[in-house]
Design goal:
Blueprint lengths: L1 H26 L3 H15 L3 H4 L3 E3 L11 H9 L3 E7 L5 E5 L6 E4 L7 E4 L14 E4 L3 E3 L4 E2 L5 H12 L4 E5 L5 E2 L13 E4 L2 E4 L5
Parallel strand pairs: 1-2, 1-6, 6-9, 7-10, 9-11
Antiparallel strand pairs: 2-3, 4-5, 7-8, 11-12
Helix pairs in contact: 2-4
């Protein structure tokens, strides 16, 4: 048990170090770079067959220097796709609501964290994500196996576990900048691979996934 604990601690420490460097690189991006990356990311994502045939997509609203998602959310909604957005719960789990446009987003601050843009309408419950045909995941990096490095809060680990328990198999896609596809992400037993990463320059799929 000690060896397992030490291995887990080493993975967590390695994740923190990798995350710190990548987030610093994001913060160095200028406003023009962020806007162009958002437009390019939307163009690339909209070409995905998984999104073209999806009726419900679980997504999120980017904050700060994250790869921008609002252009993509608006395009999906214009297609008639039902877009679900998360609302953070006190225990770091996620509830969900339907995206009804930018004017229907509320800026919510959770404790001392960065304010999040969340759907202002009715909450559908944490299980609503199991209805999605595709889930767009935030992240900081992904490796050549499809293993994703998140922000460290654990919210999407819960989402992925919920999907697994429900037997739901939506397409899992992470949205990143080009330089955030790395050789190796430290992983732990609970981590799950994604099927694809979308960056402003294109789409990469991972071996072993359809």
């Amino acid at each position: 048990m000690v060896a397992v604990s030490e291995t887990g601690q080493a993975a967590r420490s390695a994740k923190r170090e990798l995350r710190r460097g990548l987030l610093a690189a994001r913060e160095a991006l200028g406003a023009d770079e962020l806007r162009e990356a958002e437009r390019a990311l939307a163009r690339q994502a909209l070409r995905l067959p998984e999104l073209a045939r999806a009726r419900t997509v679980a997504a999120y609203v980017s904050v700060g220097a994250e790869p921008g998602t609002l252009a993509l959310l608006d395009a999906l909604r214009a297609r008639g796709v039902r877009v679900l957005l998360p609302a953070l719960l006190p225990d770091n789990d996620l509830d969900w609501g339907v995206y009804a446009g930018r004017d229907a987003l509320a800026r919510i601050r959770h404790g001392g964290r960065m304010a999040l843009l969340e759907p202002a309408g009715a909450r559908l419950g944490p299980q609503a994500v199991t209805e999605a045909d595709a889930v767009l995941l935030p992240g900081v990096a992904v490796d050549t196996r499809g293993m994703r490095l998140g922000r460290g809060g654990g919210s999407y680990d819960r989402v992925l576990a919920r999907l697994e328990r429900a037997g739901a198999r939506p397409a899992l896609v992470v949205l990143l900048y080009d330089g955030e596809v790395v050789a190796r992400v430290p992983d732990q037993p609970h981590d799950r691979p994604v099927q694809a990463v979308v960056t402003p320059s294109g789409v990469r799929r991972f071996t072993g996934h359809a």
